[in-house]
Amino acid sequence: MTLPFSQACENNKQPILDVLHPLLADSKRVLEVGSGTGQHAVHFAPALPWLEWQPSDLAEHHPGIEAWREAHPSDNLHSPILFDLRHSDWPGDFDAVFSANTAHIMAWPLVQRLIEEAGHHLPRNGLFILYGPFNYHGRYTSESNERFDAFLRSRDPEQGIRDFEAINTLAEQAGLSLEQDNALPANNRLLVWRKCGG
To answer: What is the pTM (predicted TM-score) of this model?
Structure first.
């Protein structure tokens, strides 16, 4: 099959990896929620050979992810698993959860469930890492983000760029403490929370 391709993934994969590499130095198993095309997974896994990278997504994305995995195999990159926040159970034991460009696509109740589940299932000192555009103090960080948000909401009123403060409140309620807020290219952020309790 033709490999699915996202130009955004191609553009942001190395800046994200530059943050992930030291951040995940002590991690063993990482769950990627919403792996999309699979481009992030095949770029990150070989660069982080000490850990196991587990892609996950809705079933319709699995063939594309698997095609990328077959084209760029890595011993620590697993086949994608089904994870649908509408009804799937948490898929196993992981000490880090990574998700890119999902919070503005998922309906808000699913964002809530992702953060609640991550907080519940991560071990002490486990990491929850979320990448994408976010608003701060109810305001857009750029005109391009404002246009992007209008596009998302015109397509589906349940989509849209989320407020950082609302996300962080959910994380704190789930026992996660904000550790990093990294500015990345194209007006995106990489947010990192650490599990406080056991």
So the answer is: 0.98
